[in-house]
Amino acid sequence: MILTINGKVHEVSVPDDIPLLWVLRDYLKLTGTKYGCGVGACGSCMVLVDGDPQYSCILKASDCVDKDVVTIEGAEHNQNIKKVQQAWIKHQVPQCGYCQSGQILMAASLLDKTNSPNEEDIDRAMSRVLCRCGTYPRVKSALLNCDKNCE
Amino acid sequence: MNQIPISRRDFLKVSGLVASGSLFLGVNVGCESQKQNTSNNLMPNIWIRVSPDNTITVIVSESEMGQGTYTALPMLVAEELEVNWDKVLVERASVDPVYGYQFTGGSNSIRRGWGKLRLAAALTRELFIRAGALHFKVDKERCTAGQGYVITGDKKISYGELIPIADGLEIDEQVSLKNISEFSIIGKPVPRKDLVSKVNGTALFGMDIKLKDQLYSTVVHPPFIGAKLISYDPASITNMAGVIDVFSIDQGVAIVGKDTWTVFEAAKILAVEWSEQVECQDTETIIDKTRQLDENSRVKEETLGNVDEVFKSSNRIVKREYILPFQAHMTMETMNCTTHFKDDGDVEIWVPTQSPSGVYDVAKNIAQSKIERKLRQLKNDILGGYDDTINVNTTYLGGGFGRRLQHDYVSESVQISKRYKHPVQHVWSREEDLKQDYFHPLTLHDISVCLDDQGYPLAWHHIIKGGGVNAIGADHLYDIPNKKIEVLNGPEYLRKGSWRSVGAHYNVYVIEHLIDELALQSNYDPIEYRLNLLKNSSRLSKVIETVAELSGWSERANEEYIYGIAAARTFGSYVAEVVMLKKIKENGFKLHKVFCVVDCGVAVNPDIVKQQMEGGIIWGLTAATKSKITVNNCQVEQKNFYNYPIIRLDEVPSIEVHILKSSENPEGIGEPGVPPLAPAIANAVLNATGRSSYELPIRMS
C-alpha cells in the first residue's frame, strides 16, 4: 500500500482492513496521533485527509491511497497547525497532553475554514475532540484570540 | 540515570527560616556529605545534577500526568539554587529506593517537595558559593549567587565551571531558606516545561514506545470479576494474518500479534467460555445490599459531643438518604505497558504509571523466582544498592486520576513478555479499559441532623456506606457541637480504586447539598448560613466571602440566572465555587458560569493552579451532570465514550478562577477543585425548583 503522509510517500505492507491510525502508529512510528476509543467517539486520532478532519481510528488506510494525509508531525508544512501550536503555548492549553494532537489538528482545520472563528464555530468544531483533563476553556480562549496571538 | 549511593546515616539536621518564620528541623533531603561526582557532572544530592555547561537537571520523583509536577517541582529548586529557568532540565527519577516509595497521588507532590527540594537546592547553592569564594580567593560572605553564577564584585563564574572545586568540598549542614518576599520564580506563572513536546506530538506516552522488533499484545478479560476461564479456542484466531500466539495468563487470555489493531480484532473474535456467577448483582441489588449494611461492617467511627442524647431529646430532625453511583476514570490513554526481557537477563519496562515503585514490585514478583529474589535481597543487604536488573521507565501519563496507581496491566505485560526475546507492547482497548477499571465506589449516605430553634445544626450524624469507602472530606469545618461520622464497609461488587478527589467527592456532595437544604428550610441565605457556622474557620469563610463578591451573589435576581454555592477544605486547600445556571426553557437549565476561589497556601505556579481548578471543575461536571456506571447481571453496562459520556467543549461554561494570596505552606491542588462543583449545581437546581438531588447525576430539567 502506498500512502502519502505529510508530503512524504511511504510504501507499507499492512493488513487489508487496518485503520489509518495503526499504520501511522505501529508501522510508520508516527506516534503523535493517538488511540483513545477505536470507534470515532473521542477524536484523539484526528488527522487531516485532503484537508478534512477525519477520525483515523475508523478510517481504512486503503481509503487514503492517493490522498494527502497530514498529522501533527506535518506541522512544518502547515501554517495553521503552526499557528495553533503557538496559540496553545501562549495559552498554556495542554495538561496531560494525550488528546492535544487531535485538538490541534481539529483546530487547524477550523482555521482553514475561517480565520477568526467565533464561539459557535469553536463549539461546533472542537466538541468532536474529548479531553479528560479539562483543557476546554483554554482551547476556546486560544482559538478566540488566535489572530492576535499567532502573528 | 546514574545510581547515587546514599548513606542513610546522614539525614541532615538543618535549621532554616521558612516562609512562616518557624524553624524546621531534621528534614530528610536524602543528602549526604560525600557528594558523588559522575563523569564531569556534580550531583551534590539525589535531586540535583549540575553539568559543566551550567545546565541544571532536577530529578523529579512524581509522575507528570497533566498536573504540572515537571514544572512546579523544578521551580522549587530553581528558586533556592538561583539559576536561570531556561537552563533547568527535568529528569524522571529511577526506582532507586533512595527516592522512597514513589506514589503520585492525594494531591501531595508539592506538599512533599516544598521542604526537601528547596532545602536540597539551598544547600547546593551554598556549596557553590563556597567554591566560588575559593576560586576568587575572597571570603564567602563577599560572594552571592544569581542566574547560575557565583558573583563577587564585578567578577562571576558559573556553577558548571566551579564543579571541580565544589567536588572537593563538604556540604554544609546549615542554610537559610528564602522568605516569600524574596521569591523570584515561586509565585510566577512560569510556562510549563512539558508543553512544547505536547503540542508537536513528540511527548512520549506509554503507547508511543516503539522498539526494534516490537510485538503487540492484549488480553481478553472475563466479562465480570469472579468469572473463571473454562476454555478458549485458539483456532478461532490463529489463522488471522498477524496473530502470533494465544495463551492464558492469570487475568484472562493473552493474544500476541504484529500490531495493536490485529490483536484488538483477534480479541473480538476469540471464542472464550467463562464460568457463570451463582449469585449475580445489578445496580438495584447492590444498592439494596449496601443499604442493609449495619454496625457489623463499621470500620470507622468519630464522635464529638453526645450525638445520641441530642437526637433523643430533639423534635426537629432532618433525615436524608443519598445514593451516589460508581464512576469510571476514562483516562484518554488506555492502560498499557511495554516490557522487554533482554538477553542479559535484565527486564526493562516502559509504562505510564503513578507509582513506578509499585510497577517494580509487581514486575519483580513475576520476573524472578522466590529464590532469586531472596538471593538478590541478600546481596543488596551486604553490598548495598538495590536490584536494578528490573528497570522501570516512567513515560508521560495520558491521564492518571488514580487509575494508574493500580498495576494489573503491568502484571499482564510481564507475564506475556516473559515468553519473548523481543519487546512486547501490551495495550488495552477502550472497552477493556472501561470494563477492567478500578471504579469510584457506589455510596449510600444516611445523614441525620438535629436542628436548634434557629434552624442551625445541634447534632450531625453521617453514615457512609459502600464497598471500600472512606471518610475523606466528611470532617467538615461547620461548627456543630455534636458530630458523629461512621464508615460502614461492605463488599465492593466492582473493583474499587482511587478516583480524582476520592471520598471527598461523595462526602462533600452530601454535606454541601444538605447544608443548602437546611438553610432554605429556615429561610436563610445559603452563604449567610454557612458563614454563621464557620466563625472558627477564617480561611474557608474568606474563600466563601470572596466568591460571593466575585459572582455578585448579593445582587443576584434569580430570574434569568440561578445561583448555587458549595465550599470545602479538602487535601489541605480551601475552595468555594458558585455556579450560575441559565433558564433555557420551562424547568430546564444550562450551566452558564462557574466562579471558583481557592486558598491553597503559596501558589507555586498560579497558572498551573488555575489549570488544575479548571480541570477539577470539568471533572466534577461530568460526574455531576452526565456519567454513571451501572451493573446488569454482574456486568458493567457501559462500553465506551458513547455510553459513558464525558463533558464536551460545547457543554462547558466559562470558568473564572481567583487565587487568594497566602503565605501559608502550599497545599494540594489536583483534587480540591472537584468536590464543591456537583453540590453547587445541585444547590442551584434546589434554589430554582425546590427539589433536592439525592442522586447523581443531577437532573437538569
How would you sum up this structure, described in words?
- The complex is a heterodimer of chains A (151) and B (701).
- In chain A, 37% of the residues lie in helices and 13% in strands.
- Chain A is of the alpha+beta class.
- In chain A, α2 (79-90) crosses α3 (100-113) and α2 crosses α5.
- The termini of chain A are far apart.
- Chain B contains 17 helices and 30 strands.
- Chains A and B meet through α1, α2, α3, α4 and α5 of A and α4, α6 and α16 of B.
Largest interface by Cβ-Cβ < 8 Å: A-B, 57 and 64 residues
Helical proportion of chain A, percent range? 25-40%
Number of continuous helical runs of chain A: 6
SS-derived structural category of chain B:
alpha+beta
Order of helices and strands of chain A: EEHEEEHHHHH
Average pLDDT value of chain B?
A: 93
- Which band does the percent of strand residues of chain A land in? 5-15%
Quaternary? heterodimer
Radius of gyration of chain B, CA atoms, in whole angstroms: 28 Å
**Ends apart, CA distance between termini of chain B:** 56 Å
Work out the number of β strands of chain A.
Answer: 5
Q: What summary fits the major beta sheet of chain A?
A: 5 strands, mixed
Q: Tell me roughly what share of residues is in helical segments of chain B.
A: 25-40%
Q: Give the radius of gyration of chain A.
A: 15 Å
Q: How are the strands ordered across the major sheet of chain A? A: 2-1-5-3-4
Spans of chain B with pLDDT under 50 lasting ≥5 residues? 1-37
Q: What is the beta-strand fraction of chain B? A: 15-25%
Q: How would you write the strand order of the largest sheet of chain B?
A: 13-14-11-21-18-19-20
For the biggest sheet of chain B, the summary is:
7 strands, mixed
Attribute tags:
heterodimer; A: 151 residues; alpha+beta; five-stranded mixed sheet; 6 helices; B: 701 residues; seven-stranded mixed sheet; 30 strands; 29% helix; disordered N terminus
